[in-house]
Every structure is written in C-alpha cells, then in structure tokens.
From TrEMBL:
EC number: 3.2.2.23, 4.2.99.18
Biological role stated in the UniProt entry: Involved in base excision repair of DNA damaged by oxidation or by mutagenic agents. Acts as DNA glycosylase that recognizes and removes damaged bases. Has a preference for oxidized purines, such as 7,8-dihydro-8-oxoguanine (8-oxoG). Has AP (apurinic/apyrimidinic) lyase activity and introduces nicks in the DNA strand. Cleaves the DNA backbone by beta-delta elimination to generate a single-strand break at the site of the removed base with both 3'- and 5'-phosphates.
Species name: Blastochloris viridis
Protein name: Formamidopyrimidine-DNA glycosylase
Amino-acid positions noted as binding DNA in the UniProt annotation, renumbered to this chain: 100, 119, 162
Keyword Lyase: yes
One Gene Ontology molecular-function label: damaged DNA binding
Length: 289
C-alpha cells in the first residue's frame, strides 16, 4: 500500500493540474471501487471548482466550492495520471493498462486525470467540509509526522505504559498518521532502536521523553522528507502522476536488504528479516538496541 511519501508525491503531481480547475465531465467506468461511489457522484462534481488539494494521512483531499471535500484513497494499487495537459505544459503518456482505468476527470484547463486501480481497493467519497475531522475516515487519526505537533513529547505521551512493540506503535494510525511498513523499518534503523522494544521505552518513569524518542522523531522526519524528495518508493505499483517512478527504494538501508551488511558506519551487523505481527521487519540486530 502506498505510504505517506507516495501519497504526498501524488498530491504534488496532481496539484498543478487540479487546483483552481473546474470539473467538466466525470466518467465512471464501474459502479464501485472498494466501496460504491457516492450517490449522484458525477452530478455532484460537475461544475465544481477545486479550491485546494491537500492530504491527511494516506488520503487525498480535494476541497470543492460546494462545501464538500472529494476524499480519495489509493488503496493497494491505485494511481493517477495526468494527460492532455494545456498547450505549453508537458503531456504524459498513459503508461497503464486502460482496462483498469475506472474514473476519468476532464477539467476546465484541458487536463484529463485518470484513476487506474487493478485491485480496486481504492475509494472516492464526498464528505461535507464541516465536521470533516470527525468523519469515520479521519476521527482518531494521530498527528501528521511532518507536522508541527509531532515531537518527542507527544510521542512519549502516546507510548507511555504501552507494552506493544515500537514498530506496532508507529504503524498504529491512531498514534502517528500515514506511516507504513517501509518507512517504519527505515526510521527505526536510523534511530538505532530495535523494532521489538516495548513502546513504553520512549518515555521515562515521569512520562518525559527518553533519549530514543527524540532520535526517533528526527529519524521519521528525515526518512519521509528524503523519500518525498525522491518521489517515493516504487516497489510494485507506485507511479507518479507524470508516469515516472519513485527512486527512494535505491536508498533503503534495511528494508528488503536481508543478508546485506548494515550500512551504519562501524557496524559489523547483517540485515535480518523476521515476520512481526504478520509483516516483514527488516533490522540490524547489532546496532538497533
């Protein structure tokens, strides 16, 4: 599933084509994705202007002038591409099997945005802007890891008293929003923390951040910022709206690097892979304590 860097990369790719544009025609080539499209979906979008394109966790949010928000999730294999851009802009090739093109948006700028999803685990919904944060998609989501509120103090408060593992804590969308398996493995390695440590080790007896909490916050921020700059990680399905691939997979330190030497300077460890809570965990048993 695309994680925060991939979704943010998609948002940045769509933003120039979508913000300020008006939906002219909407073509639905099936009745549903993961869930059915909202009632009168095409009718409610037609003629609406996109005021802003944002992101919350792994959701894309198109704020409309109708006081509704078009909420989009890529699921496991969803992607957008931009075609038929206005004269003077780049034209992007299809690059995907058209049999999986399920939604087509034609915009007032002349741009065509196509949503492609072979597994159909994505979704699109229309949600009132008022009360958006309380919608079931977003209620209870933790802080954005690149936002100002994400800090060692907050992470320690969330972790205090919890016996679940550090990896499970970071994957919990109620604790931190948007993180997934790849970037959690990478951040824990950068922070020098074992994925098996109890979450409560991030806080001391008084509930204040332990040293590892500050390292982990910094590592999460760094790995996400670097991944976004590289266009995300293209391992199976992720592609940018211009058809290009992400390149952060070439900078992985531990993820999918089983059996390779640990890249930490001076460390003689070898990257291991174990199954933790049903998911692959990649780590160095020597320098991650």
């Amino acid at each position: 599933m695309p994680e925060l860097p991939e979704v943010e990369t998609v948002r940045r790719g769509l933003q120039p084509a979508m913000e300020g544009a008006v939906f002219e025609t909407i073509v639905l080539r099936r009745a549903d994705l993961r869930v059915p499209f909202p009632a009168r979906f095409a009718e409610r979008l037609a003629g609406r202007r996109i005021l802003a394109l944002g992101r919350r966790a792994k959701y894309l949010l198109a704020d409309l002038d109708s006081a509704e928000v078009l909420v989009m999730h890529l699921g496991m294999s969803g992607s957008f591409r931009v075609e038929a851009a206005p004269v003077g802009a780049f034209h992007h090739p299809r690059g995907r099997d058209p049999v999986h093109d399920h939604v087509v948006f034609d915009l007032s700028t002349g741009a065509r945005i196509t949503y492609n999803d072979p597994r159909r685990f994505g979704l699109m919904a229309l949600v009132p802007r008022v009360g958006l944060a309380d919608h079931p998609f977003f209620a209870g989501l933790g802080p954005e890891p690149l936002g100002n509120t994400f800090c060692a103090e907050l992470l320690a408060a969330v972790a205090r008293g919890r016996v679940t593992s550090l990896k499970a804590l970071l994957l919990d969308q109620h604790a931190v929003a948007g993180l997934g398996n790849i970037y959690v493995c990478e951040a824990l390695h950068r922070a020098g923390l074992s994925p098996f440590n109890a979450a409560m080790t991030l806080a001391d007896a008084a509930g204040q951040p332990a040293a590892g909490a500050a390292r982990l916050v910094e590592a999460v921020r760094q790995v996400l910022e670097e991944a976004i700059a590289a266009g995300g990680s293209s391992i199976s399905d992720h592609a940018r709206p211009d058809g290009g691939l992400g390149y952060f997979q070439h900078a992985f330190r531990v993820y999918d690097r089983e059996g390779q030497p640990c890249p930490t300077p001076g460390c003689r460890g070898v990257v291991r892979r174990v199954v933790q809570n049903g998911r692959s965990t990649f780590f160095c048993p020597v320098c991650q304590r």
